[in-house]
Amino acid sequence: MSMIEAERQLDLDALRATINRKLEHYLPEPSCTPSPLAEAMRYTITAGGKRLRPLVLCAAHRASGGIPDENFWRAAAAVEYLHTFSLVHDDLPCMDDDDLRRGLPTAHKKFGEGMAVLAGDALAVLAFELLGETGNCDVVIEMAQAIGARGMIAGQVGDLAAEGCEVSLAAVQQIHRCKTAALFRGCARGGGLLAGVDDQRLEALTVYGEQLGTAFQIVDDLLDLEGDTEQMGKRAGADLRRGKATYPGASSPDRARADAREAARAARQALEAFEDRVALLALVDLAVAREA
Amino acid sequence: MSMIEAERQLDLDALRATINRKLEHYLPEPSCTPSPLAEAMRYTITAGGKRLRPLVLCAAHRASGGIPDENFWRAAAAVEYLHTFSLVHDDLPCMDDDDLRRGLPTAHKKFGEGMAVLAGDALAVLAFELLGETGNCDVVIEMAQAIGARGMIAGQVGDLAAEGCEVSLAAVQQIHRCKTAALFRGCARGGGLLAGVDDQRLEALTVYGEQLGTAFQIVDDLLDLEGDTEQMGKRAGADLRRGKATYPGASSPDRARADAREAARAARQALEAFEDRVALLALVDLAVAREA
Fold this sequence. Notes:
The structure is a homodimer. Chain A is mainly α. Helices cover 72% and strands 1% of the residues of chain A. At the A-B interface, helix 2, helix 6, helix 7 and helix 8 of A face helix 2, helix 6, helix 7 and helix 8 of B.
């Protein structure tokens, strides 16, 4: 590892530690909410994770000249709550039916299906409470559009519908755009909006977020195919067994690797207008060169 | 029916017709969201309902001197989307397991469980998108708190936990406060906030909403005990069969009727500071003197 790589690493690790503290801080106390609900919310949030979406928000905010205040951290926690909400619901038996997530039993395995539905709901609502508290309604709208019926949720619908079907690469790309890239894009734009970025740079962050999300999801599909259950903390080969539409499945592993590299390149290229782009660049590396 | 009653009725009917138009208007077009998702969202929203929560928002807004603009209607639609989101998830097999709602098959019966979870999610997210679009972050926060882990969702957790248990009247009252009164309170306060009401009147609307919600839920429990499946559009006696904690069950039907009347009286009394309180008063009558 070069000196620069080591410094970037340290920086992201420090950011991630702050994000983890904030994620715990904003959870409801068991004293003011029913304890199984509070426990289920805490369980899903503290189970780990790369915290990539709040990191994207942080890096975009910094690149746009933002100085993190408490409202900023509320938004950073909110985007991870939104991501976790989607994982908890996607893991349900009536959806992907997964029993392992981040190396632990999924929420419905641990707390029952009803509580998993409600814990997911409560995380989404908490996210919007925190986004409202930032006082920036544009960020509320941005995140709602990112995860809503034209964004992440549409992607999950497409994912379910494609199960067991012969699906074109174009269809997989459309699913990925909704399922994954929409929230990455929302995080990149949200960081910019919170820093009051100008329209031109907001557009650059839009491209960055979309391309980063695209690269991330292609690599995710490749890892499911080639990765290791223990290292990933979720079952390898699950997509294949379930007949899921995947990027390598609809093209080839070689094509998938090439397209992930190309998306990563496009994400990096979008950043030329930003002087302080070290963290944004480091996240591209993190999204593509990972083993979990 | 007296002249005044007839006029009130007409007024609420006209309001309800506008609300129904707006509820359809803000739904996603099948052209820009996967069609089964758009269809499931539309199905649950157009299945009918008294639209009591948006009516409370409207009446509180009017009493506070507000003039309805498009942002106001966005909020009115949002609170009904939030209510419907909760019904769709509560009806799921892993929760209340209901197969009939508003005289029609429940969402999961019609579209499958996975789609019902996602349609509920999408309605909640759409609600927060519209609330964000009002440009009033206080209303975003208000509604998130009303339905979140200390509000409506906490009530549903309490409801599930109390199934088949011997439950005190105090415990039932606490469940009702969260499950139902929190959103009514949020609607009353939300209407006031959107009209820029002063603190004293906001406090009066808080009491009104809580008491109205309390009266409404006690009557709901009585109707489940004594009502008619066809008239209600959901199965009568379902609470009893499922061993649910109900107000008459934890006290007696007579006590329940007396407490509903007392809550209605308290709701009316809270309105003394408002000159234009006709609609708010009419909603109290509607909440207690109903057969469905």
